[in-house]
Amino acid sequence: MTTVLIPLILIGGLTSAGVYLLLERNLTRMLLGLLLAGNAVNLLILTVGGAGGNPPIRGRTSNGATTTADPLAQGMILTAIVISMGIAAFVLALAYRSYRLTTVEEVSNDPEDTRVSQQREAEDEEDEIPQADISRDTDAPDELDALPGFEGSK
Q1: Range with the lowest mean pLDDT among 6-10, 14-18, 115-119?
Q2: Cβ atoms within 10 A of the Cβ of 15, count?
Q3: What is the pTM of this model?
Q4: Buried-exposed string 34-70: b where 16+ CB fall within 10 A, e elsewhere
Q5: Are 27 and 105 a contacting pair, CB within 8 Å?
Q6: What is the pLDDT of residues 37-94, one digit of tens each?
Q7: Which residues lie across from 130 on neighbouring strands?
């Protein structure tokens, strides 16, 4: 029981720390959070992949294991490592460029996004949705039941 519980607690801790760091406005902390969350997912895939066994090569055995190891989990982890390193390189380049332009590593609110958001809130306050007339809801045909000029199928 403890052999299954310890990796899951470790995965939960890495995931929670990664999400906490991703919510920061500092690009370096965002990068660290992204890497922690990626490593947590890799550990989760490895844990779900099952216990180790014989290599998936015909005729090979390993310490008398009776089952064959699943190579899919290992292949997925290797792919995830390559992808996370590519994303890490992109975020590092983004952080470097942001620091060179503004000499601040913290991500700030975009003034254009703030203006559009405030404009949208003002439009939402002005636009009121008219309430539907419940007394008009009948089963009798009305002008919206048929298209004008449509005479049915022949």
Answers
A1: 115-119
A2: 17
A3: 0.62
A4: bbbbbbbbbbbbeeebeeeebeeeeeeeeeeeeebbe
A5: yes
A6: 999 999 998 888 877 777 777 777 777 777 777 788 888 999 999 999 999 999 899 8
A7: none
CATH fold group of domain 1-52+70-103: Helix Hairpins (1.10.287)
Is the separation of the CB atoms in 80 and 45 below 8 Å? yes
Model confidence over 19-52: pLDDT tens digits?
999 998 888 899 999 999 999 999 998 888 877 7
The per-residue DSSP string of 82-115 comes to HHHHHHHHHHHHHHHHHHHHHS--B----HHHHH
Q: Which residue has the tokens 């989760």?
A: 44
Domain ranges of the chain: 1-52+70-103
Tokens of 104: 């601040």
Give the other-Cβ count within 10 Å of 137's Cβ: 8
3-class DSSP state for residue 150?
A: coil
Question: Quick one: tokens of 102?
Answer: 């503004």
HSE, side-chain direction, 13 A CA sphere, residue 61: 4
Which pair of structure tokens corresponds to residue 67?
């089952």
